[in-house]
Amino acid sequence: MSQLEILEFPDPRLRTIAKPVIEFDEKLQKLVADMFDTMYEAPGIGLAATQVNVHQRVVVIDVSEDHSQPLVLINPSYTVLEGEPEEMQEGCLSVPGFYEGVTRIDHVLLKACDEYGKPYELEARGLLAVCIQHELDHLDGKLFVDYLSTVKRSRIRKKLEKQHKLQA
Ligand code: K1U
Ligand code: ZN
After folding, report:
1. What's the CA gap between 15 and 121, in Å, rounded?
2. Fewest beta carbons less than 10 Å away: which of 14, 76, 148, 155?
């Protein structure tokens, strides 16, 4: 397995809309394995292919504390189930060091395929429901900072741009 480089905000490649996966082949299975490796190492609880500059509808998630609940989401979609929107603190591996409150649906029905093309459905609540929405946003070129005020988003962008200049 290999570690993949994670793009950071405000990299314009994070705004790319990902294309559906058509072939469930070994290349896809290697991408999924590398994405888990990268996510666990970061560490994070989710990673979308967009974040590693691969523009296909591929997501990995594991919200467990012991890496025991890996989920592969290929060509995912969700529908909203009953319940009130709730605010939760969110972070993002593409926006390192920043955590902000975002209001999202707390209960969703996920439909996706695994890396072998097998379709499945999963009812998700709480952190998993939030993580699914966050990762599916990435596939559509959207970041959690887009839900913040312009002032907050531009403050975060300036701080990260400054860090990137220092690292260059
Ligand atoms: O998509 C990403 O950038 C991953 C992101 C997912 C996420 C976090 C919080 C709410 C919604 C979605 C992260 O994993 S940020 C890191 C993080 O939250 C975390 C890291 C280690 C242990 C527990 C959480
Ligand atoms: Zn993210």
Report:
1. 27
2. 155
> Using a 6 Å cutoff on CB, does residue 46 contact ligand 1?
yes
- What pTM did the predictor assign? 0.97
Whether the predicted pLDDT of 86 surpasses 90: yes
Which residues, other chains included, contact 117 with Cβ-Cβ below 8 Å and sequence gap of 6+?
24, 74
CA of 43 to the centre of ligand 2 (A): 12
Annotated binding-site residue? 138: yes
Query: Is 123 labeled as catalytic in the residue annotation?
Result: no
Beta carbons of 144 and 100 less than 8 angstroms apart: yes
Mean pLDDT of all residues in 58-80: 98
pLDDT of residue 82: 82
Q: Residue 83: pLDDT band by 50, 70, 90 thresholds?
A: confident
Asked whether residue 164 is marked as a ligand-binding residue, the answer is no
Q: Do residues 44 and 87 make contact, with C-beta atoms less than 8 angstroms apart?
A: no
